[in-house]
Design brief:
Layout (H helix, E strand, L loop, with lengths): L3 H4 L21 H9 L6 H12 L1 H11 L3 E5 L5 E6 L2 H12 L5 H4 L5 H15 L4 H14 L3 H11 L19 E4 L15 E4 L8 E12 L5 E8 L2 E8 L10 E6 L10 E14 L5 H37 L1 E2 L2 E2 L4 H29 L2
Parallel strand pairs: 3-6
Antiparallel strand pairs: 1-2, 4-5, 5-9, 6-7, 7-9, 8-9, 10-11
Helix pairs in contact: 2-11, 3-4, 3-7, 4-5, 7-10, 7-11, 8-9, 8-10, 10-11
The chain binds flavin-adenine dinucleotide (FAD).
């Protein structure tokens, strides 16, 4: 008797093949059209190359980076505080690829008409592969206009912010060719209302723009806490002010920046979001004292531009998966893609997806002409 005939429980039929390995640029006609229409036609081959990566190795890395969440280590095994977040290698692959292709830097390092659109196009592709790494990539990109408000600090930091090198080592910025930046505004009691912030800043010597301060307080949200420095808000006698707070002091010692815990999140799992304390953390004032909100808004506004790009990307990836599924799945003897009511649903999704893309890239074009 052949026992195998009893071991066969089922045969897999009527399931779509996985949508793996597609070049996300080449299968996206609306993206190609809007990139050209918004003035970034010159970057097509560059975006095309990123499309192949996004649909292939980055998509695969995205699954791994989200299945293997970052792990927080408060102390080493001898009891020393280390405040280290350990990421899966796939997360580093996502970060490295994006930085080497200029996702945080392109329009600032090589300004020309269409540069913001070209970068938004690549970010749109990256976000379809993996959205969590978009958080530090975006914050690094967005920090540039705010940093430029303090030329002495900008001179020191910008060459490394704009470098196409990723260096995740837990060492001071002096030892790195490239750095990433984060943002810590939000406190428990205030949320969007940052005027309710209670973190205090005390001048080390003379007060004022570009000067050193020590910060004492907490932040309820500090995403990507392994960034090399953060723009943050704290109160001085003149009101809320903006500061650049590095994770290491200039003498290479750890700054007084302590991670309390990582957030437990429903999504965005590859990315570490943390709660932090500043216990006399050394930081330098950016922009005018008491004008912290208008200063940090220069960064926040650019992160919100990327929220448009990232949300459009999620809509597009959902549409791609839905259309692919319906092109392979039969119900009632016909492919779903041939069922009139399903065609209505897919057409609605396609329209909304393209509208979101058009608005985002048109906004990129506006940034190119600021
Ligand atoms: C995954 C994740 C990562 C984050 N990372 C960071 C980070 O790195 N750095 C950082 O600083 N913050 C970060 N945040 C915090 C985020 O920016 C805050 O959650 C946000 O500012 C909203 O604050 P809140 O949740 O306390 O909402 P609240 O301030 O309590 O607001 C509640 C709701 O009211 C709405 N609202 C507020 N004011 C008005 C108004 N005048 N009229 C009508 N509606 C209003 C808000 O839009 C919101 O929907 C992160 C949040 C998340 C979820």
């Amino acid at each position: 008797m052949n026992l195998h005939q009893f071991a066969e429980t089922h045969e897999v039929t009527n399931q779509p093949p996985a949508l793996d390995g597609a070049n996300l640029w080449r299968i996206d006609l609306p993206l190609q059209e809007w990139v050209r229409r918004c003035g970034a036609g010159w970057a097509e081959s560059r975006i095309d190359a990123y499309g192949a990566l996004a649909g292939g190795p980055l998509m695969a890395a995205g699954f791994l980076a989200n299945q293997n969440k970052p792990v927080f280590h408060s102390h080493d095994r001898y009891g020393h505080r280390i405040d280290l977040v350990e990421f899966h290698p796939a997360y580093h692959e996502l970060m490295r690829t994006a930085i080497e292709h200029g996702l945080p830097s392109l329009p600032w390092a090589h300004p020309q008409p269409g540069a913001h659109v070209a970068r938004a196009g690549m970010t749109y592709l990256h976000s379809q592969a993996e959205a969590g790494s978009g958080c530090p990539l975006t914050m690094t990109f967005a920090s540039v206009p705010a940093l430029r408000l303090q030329p002495d600090l900008a001179e020191q930091w910008l060459p490394k912010v704009l470098a196409t090198e990723y260096d995740p080592r837990n060492v001071g910025m002096a030892h790195k060719a490239g750095v990433t930046l984060g943002m810590a505004m939000t406190e428990k009691q205030g949320g969007t209302d940052v005027r309710a912030n209670t973190t205090r800043a005390f001048a080390v010597g003379s007060p004022g723009p570009g000067q050193a301060y020590e910060l004492v307080g907490h932040k309820w949200f500090c995403s990507a806490p392994m960034c090399d420095a953060f723009l943050t808000l704290a109160q001085t006698d003149k009101g809320l002010s903006c500061f650049l707070l590095p994770r290491h002091r200039p003498d290479d010692t750890r700054n007084e920046f302590y991670i309390q815990r990582l957030k437990d999140k429903l999504g965005n799992c590859s990315n570490a979001s943390s709660e932090v304390e500043f216990r006399g953390a050394l930081a330098w004032m950016i922009g005018e004292e008491g004008r912290g909100v208008p200063t940090i808004i220069e960064m926040v506004a650019m992160t919100r531009f990327d929220c448009m790009v990232g949300s459009s990307a999620l809509m597009r990836q959902a549409l791609s998966q839905a259309a692919h599924h319906c092109a392979h799945r039969q119900v009632g003897g016909r492919l779903l893609a041939d069922q009139p009511l399903m065609q209505n649903v897919l057409a609605d999704l396609a329209l909304e997806s393209e509208a979101a893309l058009a608005l985002s890239l048109r906004m990129g074009q506006a940034l190119d002409h600021l």
